[in-house]
Amino acid sequence: MAEPLPLIGRPSAHRCQAEVEVTHGVGLHARPSVAFTRLAKSFPCTVEVALDGSADWLNGKSIVKIIGARIRRGTKMRIRAEGARAQEAVAALSELVRRNFDEDRKPGRADGRPV
Amino acid sequence: MAARCEQRGQPASPGRAVGPLYRAGEPAEAAGPAGSGGEPRAALTAAVERAIAELRALAAKADAESAGILDFQIELLLDGELLAPALARIERGEGAALAFAAAMNERIDEVTGEAGETASETDSEADEDEEAEPDPFALRAADLRDLQHRVLDALAGRTRADFPPGAVYVGRDMPPSVFLAHDWSAGGAIALGAGSAASHVALLARARGVPMVVGLGAVPGDAGDPLLVDGTRGTACLHPDGGEMATAPAPPSPPSSAPARAPVAFPASLAPAVGGPGLFATIDTLADLDGFDPAHVDGVGLVRTEFLFTHAAEALSEERHLAVYRRLLAALGGKPVTLRLLDLGGDKALPGLAEGDPAAVLGLRGVRFLLAHPDLARIQARALMRAAALGPLSVLLPMVTVPAELEAMALLFEEEAARLARQGVEARLPPLGIMVEVPAAALTLDLFPQAAFFSVGTNDLMQYLAAAARDNPAVAPLCAGAETAMFRLLDHICASARALGRPVSLCGDLAARPEAAGRLRALGFDGLSVPPGQIEAVRAALAGAAPNSPPGRG
């Protein structure tokens, strides 16, 4: 079996973090949450989210956690990932939040990935 | 042709019917005991998978807007976080349906922003949010309720073992849920090796006009053999001859035409004379609504809600409860409806929630069971209060022994009323009354001023008074023998209720016996609740028993 990517010892290569402000009209209600978690789950790394400087990191792949956080417009979201493709994941998720979850553009494609 | 073979048992429900033999049991023992081990875990996982598959099928056909909502529900079901609390409850020994329903309710509370209602410090923050008119986050609670409903339905759908319409059910005993899930409109009958004429399923069979015989011992014959059941004589006859077949009325055409009809047709409008007890219908299933004209009764005196739901998953679905209560209120067109809280435990099982154990008639049943399973009680309380906003509804607590039980249940209703108010759901706190069926309560009604009304359950009161199990044929005669004790106690109950200024009615088999109507009237009962098939007979008996002078009432 192929050796998985080394996670320990070289954290910088597989750990990434960014902050983004929620500008979407309401915040992360149902549809944006689906878009966010589906995109997060498409990456092999862990994805976590912390809000407004909180040290409480939530599982970014869990819609229950994301919904439960009642993330409203103006919230500062920190997104961090660890593991394979961490950098890519953080970039894609931050971009999704900035694009307002593509709500105004493509209602059909909930996860915001290019078709 | 195979040899005719007649067996004798005890009659449990009158009438004659012939049909192909159906032997219950061995092939697919439905819904095994879901209390232990990995079984409920597997059941829940399977139900969730089924729900996801249903949602995906719906989403494939839906427009983009609806698909978005369905996607959200699918995403929720795929999230391990959603199931984790339910699985933890299963680890602690809860059945799949209870664990899932209760865990989802906690989640819904969380989403509506009032997670820890004991931790009042979190309330202030949540309350501010609740002010904003259209709360986009409240939509999700509706989604969760929808999901909860869907998974509970999937759980219920897995375990339904029905038998062919028109067949004669043969088994050792028959679970009430099997009786209730079956469509009896094509006829059929019940022949039990054991069982009792006083069991709940016998009670259901009499109300529905299904012939039934119990205590037959081993019933011979193979599946499909013609079996004639004579519930009046108490016999079952395998391979009846042609003549017998002919005299057996084929399917009972109108299902409500119970054999024991009033011999003389009294004018339907003939209400009991002034001062006599009101006449109410007792309802076990929605089909009972077809058995009487709501215009000719004073209301529904007892709904045994535990019979309305044939699976734990249904009994745990607030929306199911509400839908059924709504129909009852609508059918009664403004007349009062008294619903009894789920009376589970003892001989009343609900697979996955309460295991039937006749020995537990002195154990955790009725209100005791509900207070031990507050998650279940809260679901029903909420549905009842939502229904109470729609019409005149009262709630009856089963098996109350001491005032503390009524107080605890009243508190539970108040808590749920506050919760519904916070969620902006229309609801009303209904009057709470108690069943008088435990001698300790019957002797101390003066200690229950908090009860809005009393209803005497003579079936249980008799078995507790006589210390004779009602489903044990060996001691059944003692119940009849203890009738003097019963009437002395009924006199005491009526006097105590009058002293408190509370109405008292009587439900149970005694109310449905025309020959008892005169005595019950004289005792001063305010109401009698009887199965639809007996309403006219009891009405006639009451009219015949009307004294020249009205009974002395305080």
TrEMBL record, chain A:
In terms of InterPro entries, this protein maps to: HPr (IPR050399), HPr-like (IPR000032), HPr-like_sf (IPR035895), PTS_HPr_His_P_site (IPR001020)
Residue ranges of every copy of the HPr domain listed in the record: 15-104
UniProt KW Transmembrane helix keyword? no
Identify the domain of life: Bacteria
Q: Which CDD domains match?
A: PTS-HPr_like
Entry keywords, A to Z = Sugar transport, Transport
Q: Does the keyword NAD apply?
A: no
Q: What does this protein do?
A: General (non sugar-specific) component of the phosphoenolpyruvate-dependent sugar phosphotransferase system (sugar PTS). This major carbohydrate active-transport system catalyzes the phosphorylation of incoming sugar substrates concomitantly with their translocation across the cell membrane. The phosphoryl group from phosphoenolpyruvate (PEP) is transferred to the phosphoryl carrier protein HPr by enzyme I. Phospho-HPr then transfers it to the PTS EIIA domain.
State the protein's name: Phosphocarrier protein HPr
UniProtKB/TrEMBL annotation, chain B:
EC top class named in words: transferase
Low complexity composition bias: which ranges? 24-41
The organism is Ancylobacter polymorphus
Required co-factor(s) are:
Mg(2+)
Q: Which residues form the Phosphotransferase system enzyme I N-terminal domain?
A: 8-109
What the entry lists under InterPro entries is as follows: PEP-util_enz_mobile_dom, PEP-utilizing_PTS_enzyme, PEP_util_C, Phosphohistidine_dom_sf, PTS_EIN, PtsI_HPr-bd_sf, Pyrv/PenolPyrv_kinase-like_dom, Pyrv_kinase-like_dom_sf
UniProt-recorded name of the protein: Phosphotransferase system enzyme I (PtsI)
Question: In this protein, which residues make up the domain named PEP-utilising enzyme mobile?
Answer: 163-234
Q: Is RNA-binding tagged as a keyword?
A: no
Q: Where is this region: Disordered?
A: 1-41, 111-134
**Where's the PEP-utilising enzyme C-terminal domain?**
279-544
Q: Which EC number(s) does UniProt give? A: 2.7.3.9
Which GO molecular function annotations are given, in alphabetical order? phosphoenolpyruvate-protein phosphotransferase activity
For this UniProt record, give its keywords in alphabetical order, as a comma-separated list. Kinase, Magnesium, Metal-binding, Transferase
Return the similarity comment: Belongs to the PEP-utilizing enzyme family.
